[in-house]
Amino acid sequence: MKKKLLLSTLLALASNAALAANNQADETGEQILLAPGSKVKLTNGKTTHEGVITAGTEADGVTVVEYEPLNERSFIHGNWITMYKIEHFKNEGTSNNSRPVHEQVFGEGRLNFGDTGFNLGYILKKVSFENDRRDGSGVVNDVRFTEMELQPAYSQSIGKHWFMIEGIYLGKSGYDTPSDSDTAYLIGGDGFGIRPYYRYQFTDNFSVNTDVKFLSEDKSANGAGNGADAFNFYEAVLNGSYRVSDNLTLGLELFRKEGYDRRKDGGDETKVVEAEIRPWASLGLGKHRLFFKIEHQDKTITNLTSNQNTYEAVGTKYIVNYNYPITNKIYLMAEYFYRTEGDKVIDGSTGYDDQITNFGMLGLNFIF
């Protein structure tokens, strides 16, 4: 049976990864990060409340949290997301191509195993697109592949510290068929990695978190014969957030990605570097939650054999995300972004059309 608690300040905003956190707070109003599916324990010195968050609303500085007591909660609990995405790329590189990418996410989320701290993230999706080169040849590439990712992890909170360390397995299989050929080129990928997370709550309103991902992907797996050996990369995010009011939180992310494309056929090796600054804002309007973000990116690709930059560009992405609780256990999710990538310098040449990307997503998040 669901129960309710009234808390003076409780920020119900967290990433999917944070659903595994064993959050703790007290009724004096210390701010913590929560999301539906999170475990929570609250005490006033006399009475202790333990449960799993199912919903939360804010009004007049008070958060009403609905939770299910742990003794009524199944050992395995978490969330399951299903969604459909369309991402349309135009003018990639030197081309004037058109590439609408359709992505069906059958399942994405995280399973928590009681209050042990152990949890499992998972992703299963299908990706398909036809790349119209628009170079006068009339050739269109038909690309289809299925991707699975498993993320076993352990999380723990100690005072104002929260951390999680996650292992990653990535499996990918599919094909690429050009319209001017009867040959289907296999797409393969087996990847292994590790991803540690950390968060520190400095004050009731200010926190900082880090997210670092290391992954090595074998592109020649599953019989793919494209000459690629592996793409090894890391991604790092430093994020600070400040709660301005009960309904408004502002933040700033710093992002960097560095990857190396290694070849086993003797071909050139390349290095990819992306650096981004990402201001964001989260706004609550009753049950409606809006999330806004701007991502400014500098991107460079370098040929390590010649030590020359083969691609340079500057990109900007504008993101709007929306969440709404249809019921206590079903959330509507939607997102749109618009991105431009311009000021291209490709092999020393300029004057190319800006790359344009439009993205749309619609999905449901089920809490169990």
TrEMBL record:
Superkingdom to which the source organism belongs: Bacteria
UniProt keyword Signal present: yes
Stretch forming the signal peptide: 1-20
Protein name (database record): Porin
Keywords, comma-separated and alphabetical: Signal
Lineage: Bacteria, Pseudomonadati, Pseudomonadota, Gammaproteobacteria, Vibrionales
